[in-house]
Amino acid sequence: MNAGILGVGKYLPEKVVTNFDLEKTVDTSDEWIRTRTGIEERRIADGSIDTSDMAYEAAVQALKDASVTAEEIDLILVATVTPDKAFPSVACIIQDRLGARNAAAMDISAACAGFTYGIVTASQFIKSGDYRHILVVGVEKLSKITDWNDRNTAVLFGDGAGAVMMGEVGEDKGILSFELGSDGSGGKHLEKATEFITMNGREVFKFAVRQMGESSLNVLKKAGLTKEDVNFLIPHQANIRIMEASRQRLELPVEKMSKVIHKYGNTSSASIPIALCEEVEAGKIKDGDLIILVGFGAGLTWGAAAIRWGK
Ligand code: ACO
Fold it and tell me: Looking at the DSSP assignment, which residues form a beta bridge with residue 8?
């Protein structure tokens, strides 16, 4: 049995915070942020919108897009490092709101690689034949763990949610291969040990450039494919320079890499499903296309998947 994506959805909060807005509160400039990161603005959820609210909105869209009812969901996996509270999980909160009364539910903590961990986990249950429909959401309200006085991190992050409904797909479709990995020895470079995120940007940058390229090539090799077979790359949207390095490793033209970082900043586990949803909505990903999803994050963690698009 093959496991693939049946439908997509996303939610971005309305409030836009531009680089010029940040210039007024921290010692930074639009020029520095744009040239070093590719970010121009980000969305920030106001106090009344919590992580589960964004996850719910994205999930509703994914269900509709896949023509799957809430009662047909067997499992809900929510990748997040910014849950509403330690427990219950965001997955349980949206299980109730969706009315998914037949679904098991749990959150996954793998930071920005969380969504790739989620779809790979989901695919195992589907391939085994045990579950038919699994909702996977990547969602973050990073604004609540960002120190808005720290220019090293305040300029990078944004809030949002992306979701996919996964299920059985036809022959040669769906997840063809994957790679998941971790290196806890690098955990100190990116953590939330106190109230806020702290980061050694240069170390994370080096790790990300190396790992995103290698993982993308590894999943191609595992699927018996080559760079020439790739139609679209959806990298974690953390920094345009990291994304560009991955694109160049795959020797892809600019128009074959998804780029939403300028609008949304780094939304951690939400960034890949948001980008995927935007590309599908824009008609850039077509039936039969080979797409590579690749992410990295705190942990350190990483994950990649080669997917043949379509049902
Ligand atoms: N505005 C102006 N200057 C700044 C800013 C800012 N916002 N931030 C840092 N600087 C300064 C630094 O203080 C430094 O000054 P110095 O030379 O006087 O010491 C200078 O700019 C250069 O700093 P670098 O760290 O060398 O800048 P770099 O080019 O490496 O870019 C960045 C920094 C953007 C953070 C980059 O390292 C990066 O993107 N790293 C990866 C981050 C990432 O992807 N994190 C994932 C987190 S997601 C998660 O899991 C929650």
Answer: 164
